[in-house]
Structure formats: C-alpha cells, structure tokens
Design brief:
Helix content is 35%, strand content 18%. The protein is built from ten helices and nine strands. The strands form two sheets. A six-stranded parallel β-sheet has the order 3-2-1-7-8-9, with helices on both faces. Helix 7 links the parallel strand 2 and strand 3. The longest helix is centred in the C-terminal third of the chain and has 19 residues. The structure holds adenosine-5-diphosphoribose.
C-alpha cells in the first residue's frame, strides 16, 4: 500500500495512467451532470437559472428572501425528480469503477443532485449538500425531501415554522466532511477532477493536496479549468465519453497487474 510520502519532481512525472493505483479520489462538478440535463453554474451571463448567485446561494440571500430561495431550490428539485433527468454514461462508469476496482475509490461531488447514487455509487461525499434533504437551521437535523419546502413548513424536530432550509452549502459556508476528504487526498495515488471549472474553493485546491501527496493528477473537462496548470494530465471532451474510457483503462490495468 502506498502511504503518504514526499515525492520529488522526477518521481512525480513518472506517475502516469497505465500504472496500478490503489487509492483513487475523484472530484466531480456540474459538468458531469450537464449531459443529464442539469445546467452548469458558470454560464457566460454569470447567472444561475436567471438568478444572481448572491440572491439564491448565500445565507444573506436566504435571510433577505427565504421564499425566493425555497422556490429556486424547489424548481431544481422538481427538475431532478422528473423523468428527463437520468444518470449518464459518466455516472454509470464511476459506479462501475467503485464496484470493480480492487483498491479504494472515494467519490467527492460538488453536485447536489443524486445522479451518482442513482447510477449505483455508494461511497459518495456531497461536500456542497444534497437537494433531496432539508436541514433544521436550529438543530442541524436532516430530513429527506421528496417535494417542495415552503417558508411556513413546520420542522419535525423543533416544531417551528420557518426553521427548515435546503441542505445546501452556500457561498460563505463551510463545505461538509472536509476532514474525511483531506485525509483521503493525503493518502491517494490518483486524483481525477471531472467537469468542474476550478473557480470555487476549497474544491479547486484539492489538486494541490493530491500533488503534494505524490499522486498522479488528471483533469477531465470540456475546456481548461482555472486550475488546469496544476494537473499533470488533461483530457478534453465530454464526460460521457472520457469517463467510461478512463474507467476501462483503470480496470484493465488493475486486472492485468493483480
Ligand atoms: N463534460 C465535461 N465537462 C463539461 C461538460 C461535459 N459534458 N459540460 C460542461 N463541462 C465543464 C465546463 O466546461 C465547466 O468548466 O464543466 C465545468 C462546470 O463548471 P461550473 O459550472 O463552474 O460548475 P462547478 O465547478 O461544479 O461549480 C462549483 O460552484 O456554484 C457553485 O456550489 C456550486 O458546486 C458548485 C460550485
């Protein structure tokens, strides 16, 4: 097993695809769900589904207009639960990797949709929360949500109206399960980022941690991300094409070398 160690530059450049890996960390972003019909965030107009990010994705926005914010996420939830949104080939390939890879695979997603789980992934960290959960702002307790959340809904734990919020990490809030993620990054020998623009920290900084741990680093994205220079290897193209190809490579190398 490869543990955390110091790696020289020369050693790092020798790591490449085709090697046997034992501990993989995969980070996914909105790009992996784009081909499932869920819009990415950073469209050229800077708006997210016609709204300013500050209005719908910050604690201040929620305090100023909780009705609007609930409505916004209710629409996203309705879309996610509609028949048109289904896991695509990239989600399915990652589920196959998790099931068949002989080493460890940790999937960390910035996405709040449930497409990784619907594809069959079990070991998923939703660092930015989950659309299909609500949270009591007083106790932190989580509840499954299959429909809309409204400002006058009464919370099951505190019996108060208005204390439920979407279980979504907004700008200015701390992402979830960071200790577990950093721990995995510091042990990994392969880090892959898929469909993320590299604009939002701390996720955009994960590649740096993986490089420091001596891991091979690979970016799969349609276009260069804001942190693309940190990656040893880049593959450009659709996640639905690139991810199944990568998973095929990883599984065939590991079956040959076992
Ligand atoms: N295949 C591969 N990459 C794609 C595809 C695709 N089919 N479609 C889009 N992309 C790429 C885009 O080129 C872009 O670089 O996916 C990236 C998506 O970037 P963002 O929309 O910025 O999404 P993400 O990086 O996940 O955003 C991070 O920001 O708004 C917050 O909390 C929100 O989790 C989100 C975080």
């Amino acid at each position: 097993m490869l543990g955390k160690r110091e790696v020289t530059k020369g050693e790092m450049s020798e790591r490449e695809m085709g090697e046997e890996y034992q501990r993989i960390v995969i980070l996914t972003g909105a790009g992996i769900s784009a081909e499932s019909g869920i819009k990415t965030f950073r469209a050229s107009d800077g708006l997210w589904e016609e709204h300013r990010i500050e209005d719908v994705a910050t604690p201040e926005g929620f305090a100023a207009n909780p009705r609007l914010v609930h409505q916004f996420y209710n629409l996203r939830r309705q879309q996610l639960l509609g028949d048109a949104v289904q896991p695509n080939a990239a989600h399915l390939a990652l589920a196959r990797l998790e099931a068949e890879f002989p080493g460890e695979v940790l999937l960390v997603t910035q996405n709040i949709d449930n497409l990784h789980e619907r594809a069959g992934c079990r070991n998923v960290i939703h660092m930015h929360g989950e659309l299909l959960k609500s949270r009591c702002a007083r106790s932190g307790e989580l509840f499954p949500v299959g429909g809309d959340i409204n400002v006058d809904d009464v919370c099951d734990c505190c019996n108060l109206a208005g204390s439920l919020r979407p279980h979504v990490v907004w700008f200015g809030e701390i992402p979830l399960l960071m200790d577990e993620i950093y721990n995995a990054l510091h042990q990994c020998d392969l880090f892959v980022a898929i469909g993320t623009s590299g604009n939002v920290y701390p996720a955009a900084g994960f590649v740096r941690e993986a490089v420091a741990a001596g891991a091979h680093t690979l970016e799969i994205n349609l276009e260069p991300s804001a942190v693309q220079s940190m990656f040893a290897e880049k593959r450009r193209g659709l996640a639905s094409e690139q991810v199944p190809r990568l998973v095929g490579e990883l599984l065939s190398v590991n079956s040959m070398t076992r």
